[in-house]
Amino acid sequence: MSIAPVNSMLDKIRSLLELVTDPEVPVLTVMDLGIIRDIRLNEDEVEILITPTYSGCPAMNTIEWDIRSILTQNGFPKIKITTVLSPAWTTDWMTEAGKQKLKAFGIAPPNPVHSVCDTKLFAEQEAVQCPRCNSFNTRLVSQFASTACKALYQCNDCSEPFDYFKCH
Amino acid sequence: MSNISLDLIGQARMLYQYAATLTGGDATEDSLAYLRNEREYKNCLLMELGKGDWARTTLRQFFFSTYQFYLYRSLQNSKDHTLAAIAEKAIKEVTYHLRWSAEWVIRLGDGTAESHQRLEKAVNDLWMYTGELTTATDYETLLSKQGIAVDPASFKDQWIQKVKEVFEEATLIVPGNVWMQIGGKAGVHTEHLGYILTELQYLQRTFPGCEW
Predict the structure, then answer these.
(1) What predicted TM-score, i.e. pTM, was given to this entire model?
(2) Closest partner CB to B95 (pick from A54, A58, A119)
(3) Which of A141-150, B102-111, B149-158 has the lowest mean pLDDT?
(4) For residue A78, is pLDDT > 70?
(5) Which 3 state secondary structure label does DSSP give B31?
(6) Mean pLDDT across chain A, nearest whole number?
(7) If interface means Cβ-Cβ distance under 8 Å, which residues of chain A face chain B?
(8) Residue A125: is its pLDDT beyond 70?
(9) Helix/strand number for chain A, H first, E second
(10) What's the CATH code of the domain at B84?
(11) Which of B:98-117 have CB within 8 Å of A?
């Protein structure tokens, strides 16, 4: 296979993957999440290497089916999806565009500074910005919110509760 | 609680999938989870005990998450790359579980008279099952010598230290030496496991090989 067709195939696959969204947060694509580790073309088979976000994330199954579905329907009948555990996924892999989309959707994106990922108890929380009114005067309500990857916060200024995508 | 159990199910699935690969034949994560008999399960006794009030629930979680934290932290250095990768993933989640449960133990211990009393009762009920967490079985000793598994006795001091720190803030007394119940990791279980397996395995055993 010469270089040009391979590159255009990879581009086509990437643009198809841009259409696969997180079922929980439909504004985020799997490319925004940074879970696609690699795309490999093995003869007539396309192999997608994917790293799961949280161990028990129930959305991962749906995402795999969606990836399989969109690729097979668009000219790639043989698909292999391989899960790669290491290096472990981290919120650092989320794109800036993804973070902006989260905020627009009403979910506070993960902070760049990792100050919550240790065992210190009742630690002073990192400042999380309210996605609605942009105030930093917010408080943690619970470490676990609508899903395991999010915490529940409330804004002391506008009083609205919101989810925060935890540093991971 | 449901978020924590989701994390734990995820970790269990990764471990079961790997175990199935190593077992070979027609073993799958499902056959290991649903079709083994009680003496083939190697879980520690603490985690199969019956449910209780919030104090008992959060205390048990604290004991277990502390154990998992030190276990996974060491397992990241395993010579087995899959186990190391699973540990690297799991430790981040367990760090949250540990903070969450320890904070609850402190809130309840240093809370009202009732919450303190309930937590004290929970300590008295559960303490004798904590020794097993940091007691090595033959297979753990064997595999840790090969650099594959972690010898849980290696972090016993750290486990005790963490419990002491949190108990002090929770105004709880750490119990003295008691006889520790063991056996779960060797496949010898309490009657509680029977109820769990009945519910877990009923469907697969009644309709073998059933699918959606």
Answers:
(1) 0.85
(2) A119
(3) A141-150
(4) yes
(5) helix
(6) 87
(7) 52, 54-58, 85-89, 117-123, 143-144, 147-148, 166, 168
(8) no
(9) 4, 7
(10) 1.20.1260.10
(11) 98-100, 102-103, 106
